[in-house]
Amino acid sequence: MLDKTGIAKRIAKEVKNGYYVNLGIGIPTLVANYVRSDIEVEFQSENGVLGMGPFPFEGEEDADIINAGKQTITTLPGASFFDSAMSFSMIRGQHVDLTILGAMEVAENGDIANWKIPGKMVKGMGGAMDLVASAENIIVAMMHTNKRGESKLLKQCSLPLTGVGCVKKIVTNMAVLEVTNNGFKLLERAPGVSVEEIKNATEGSLIVDRDIPEMVL
User: Fold this and answer.
1) What is the dihedral of CA 165, 139, 47, 32, to 10 degrees?
2) With helix as H, strand as E and coil as C, how does the chain read?
3) How far apart, in whole angstroms, are the C-alpha atoms of residue 92 and residue 21?
4) 130, 21 contact by CB (below 8 A)
5) What is the Cα–Cα distance from 212 to 78, expressed in whole angstroms?
6) pLDDT (tens digit, 9 = 90+) per residue, 99-130?
7) Strand pairing partners for 171?
8) In what order do the strands lie in the sheet with 138-141?
9) Which of 51, 103, 119, 145 could form a disulfide with 114 if both were Cys (CB 3.0 to 4.6 A apart)?
10) Catalytic annotation on 214?
């Protein structure tokens, strides 16, 4: 089974040369650390940065250079900084090739809930609303189950939705899954995890139509 770093490493394999990529808060921010060194990728942060690099080493942080989650980051040569209006015009104008988000729930039709738990105070939906409405390629990074062991891959989301029918692929600590018209299609399983374990941890419809290989990180 994967940890958060393993999930990020697997998602990094989905990043292609020349991509402009937006990284959400949480596990997605780790992806920049594991992208192949022989390709060129521009990471965009909705607070107004294009050209993010890996996280800084301890003692080399610059408190003025942060991502959308207020974590200190590094920037690559040629990076640029701009205001929020410019940042969201990039997102809404569909100039981002890949969006990587965290989620609390994903439904088998691609609905995503990642911004609010009823009864808990939040500032608002934030940039996720624009990202899921504008991006054509959305990958979710998440744990397969919650702390109670209940599936987070559902027939229908129970939490308030961020977007409808927008998620294309999900990478969890147990599996890589593609969202299809008929449910979650199992593509890969995490090392040491059986297909049966994935079935038991998935509430939504799970399609297993071939031998499922283990992930290669």
Assistant:
1) 180
2) CCCHHHHHHHHHCCCCCCCEEEECCCHHHHHHHCCCCCCCCEEEECCCEEEECCCCCCCCCCCCCECCCCCECCEEEEEEECCHHHHHHHHHCCCCCEEEEECCEEECCCCEECCCCCCCCCCCCCCHHHHHHHCCCEEEECCCECCCCCECEECCCCCCCCECCCCCEEECCCEEEEEECCEEEEEEECCCCCHHHHHHCCCCCEECCCCCCECCC
3) 14
4) no
5) 41
6) 999 999 999 999 999 988 776 766 667 788 89
7) 141, 176
8) 75-81, 49-52, 42-45, 20-23, 98-102, 138-141, 169-171, 175-180, 183-189, 206-207
9) 103
10) no
> Beta strand pairing status for 175-180 and 183-189?
antiparallel
Max Cα–Cα distance, the chain, nearest Å: 50
Catalytic residue among 46, 105, 108, 203: 46
Residues 87 and 51: their CA atoms lie apart, in Å, by 12
First to last CA, the chain: 12
How many residues are given for the chain?
Answer: 217
pLDDT tens digits along 30-68: 999 999 999 999 999 989 999 998 899 999 999 999 998
Q: Which of 57, 1, 68, 58 is nearest to 28 (CA)?
A: 68
Residue 63 exposure: Cα atoms within 13 Å on the Cβ side: 0
Structure tokens at 48: 């107004």
Q: What count of other Cβ atoms lies within 10 Å of the Cβ of residue 197?
A: 16
